[in-house]
């Protein structure tokens, strides 16, 4: 009797569990049915809008761009050979001067006085020598006296010539044709050999000394004959056009600096004209490979990883093209030949994914205006 009661109680307990589980399952199913949303068709106006553009057939030049400063190939400091007060100073910075043009005049009074003293000493020695020479020829004096008088006359002549040269040195003249870069002396100042009277340079002979990273050493040394150089001086924005000229590689350093890991390349400006001057900042583009008749498009089409999207006109979707080592310059890159006639996403590429349906921006704009 007791066993029968336990069995009935156990069955009753299992039944309650079964009913509870059934109710729970039914509740979950009802919740899913009530809360489940029917698939909503993708609305046209919810699609991302993109701007498209086709590649253009053109030429692309791969290059290395390095910054530098213009220098005069030879800057000549003009120093006086004598010291003294500057009495004339016609030199002006920026003036072009020819060889032997007067740049400064140093007070010559002290040097003229020294010249007169040397002249008097020379004339006296010369007179003595002439007299002894006649006596020597007649046998009236010794060889020793003759030699002594001759030596004295020669020494006096050298002193006299030096004094005259110092007078000439009081006029400081241009040693070569050139443009005066620096002229910072003044009348009344002291001219001496420790400070130049002026600094001259030939502005038709200007160079840029580039400090090129070591990784480009083989490019510059092995491909030197195939390299072309363009030098650009950026102009003030919206005021003038950039100054541009070509250049010729004049020298490539045969070693790498162990401190900077750079090597020096000297580029000679072919036609510097009036817009390049020593000290100016320039950008030097060294072109090493040229692609002609290739499909190119603006770098704006690329994402940060170098990838881009191609638009499929039939499905109105975009296709992801993985970033590769596409040849590029500072403005454009070469599109693979298979996409020569395809539309490339130029704007909106950061908000789409591969295979996504998109709208063309122009179409979306027209719809918005309706």
TrEMBL record:
Residues 237-287 form the CusB-like beta-barrel domain. The keyword Protease does not apply. One of its GO terms (cellular component) is efflux pump complex. Keywords: Membrane, Transmembrane, Transmembrane helix. GO terms for molecular function: efflux transmembrane transporter activity. It comes from the Bacteria. Residues 78-189 form the Multidrug resistance protein MdtA-like barrel-sandwich hybrid domain. PANTHER family: HLYD FAMILY OF SECRETION PROTEINS (PTHR30469:SF15), MULTIDRUG RESISTANCE PROTEIN MDTA (PTHR30469). The chain crosses the membrane at residues 14-34. Belongs to the membrane fusion protein (MFP) (TC 8.A.1) family. This is RND family efflux transporter, MFP subunit. It holds the Pfam family Beta-barrel_RND_2. The keyword Flavoprotein does not apply.
